[in-house]
Specification:
single chain; Growth Hormone, Chain: A; 18 helices
Amino acid sequence: MKKPPYGMIAILFIGAFVAFLNNTLLNVALPTIMIEFDVTPSQVQWLTTGYMLVNGILIPASAYFIQKFKNKTLFITAMSLFSLGTLIAWIAPGFWILVAGRMIQACGSAIMMPLLMNVMLIAFPIERRGTAMGIFGLVMIMAPAIGPTLSGFIVENYSWRVLFAVILPFALIPLVLAIFKLKNITPQREVTLDKFSHVLSSVGFGGLLYGFSVAGDEGWTSWIVVATLGLGTIGLVWFILRQLRLPEPLLEFRIYKYPMFALASAISIVLSAAMFSGMILTPLYVQTIRGFSPLDSGLLMLPGALVMAVMSPITGRLFDAFGAKWLAISGLSISAITTFALSGLTLDTSYASIMFLYTMRMFGFSMIMMPVMTNGLNQLDAVLYPHGTAMNNTLQQVSGAIGSAIFLTIMNARMSKWISNEIAIQRQSGEFPVDEGAQQVVMEELSRVGMLEGITFSFFIAAIVTIVALVLSFFIKRVVPKREAI
């Protein structure tokens, strides 16, 4: 096979890195934006919810786009939309224009990861595919992981608008390079877009993502949560049944007849839920309970991001040499142990200890996701790569959002129950103060300790979830793909 087009892949990498970095860059800035535009917490949440919704709607259609259009056309379109959205968000005079800018950004970023993965599978020979996907893992995981650190620094020292001002040049550089340097290597075939499938996909994935993302604020019994989750479930079931009957499905669910791909999907779903929950619970503990600044919180998570960056290419080489099974078992064992350790956090656990546990947890995760995913994709025929990458990315979005919502709900439920029990005990013993001022002081302390109880219990559940993935990893078998699949 010809030498892989490294220059072209570098251009795609830069574009993907910027798009992935953007996913988590805004989280730390939400409170500042809320004050500036005088909006409620549920409204400001649309900056992340809207972005996630667009991704959930467009990623399932990425298999169609990748098969129908040339990779150069797709990349230029995606980066143009992303750059336009970034510009609109930077100069937005009002809150809902800012939301619109974020959603236009998402239109571009949604296609980026499936497109890059598909190009990698086509461009690299079988024996070097793990190394290539390991480098891709560096982009996929490190970019969103350094987002909070960069965002914390910018928000503490500059306006939140600088977040978009910094992103825009890095979005325009790969766009200009792509116009002159990018070549087409992905095969095209005549495929038709089943419009009704796309509607069902949007209703199904969009409804589930929205329902789970607002459940933490609205409550699981809220009519909007029940309605959107119900509608999403109906839409998704209908969508799957329709895909199984169509000769040219929007998303090919028949790829689950390949056992290693099915197993890789199951592990990835469980893993995404556990990993994303930690990315939310850790800063919540550090900032809300311990009172560290957003920048300190971001810096605490930075070594974990750097470890993942260093490990991704190494993991890829190890995958090429030994396969995914023992990498996954080792990584999941480390992740389970460190997650259990995080369930023992206290009100005075040292900053260094938290950083060490979080970094080791990320070290464990760095050995799992890309090897398992690549092993699953290796079992597919080349014609099914677009569907495999689209399916993986859709499930990661959905399971990450659902997992985060469920773990936050577990935290809130445990916290509320602990506070109620503690108040009842203090009242029964006569220790609960009568004076309103004293009551407020006691309630603030109870809320702090109650949140700690909720977070540590959520980490305990996350550890059990990680053990489920560990058990599944023992069933991994090394896949040697047919060379004609390339």
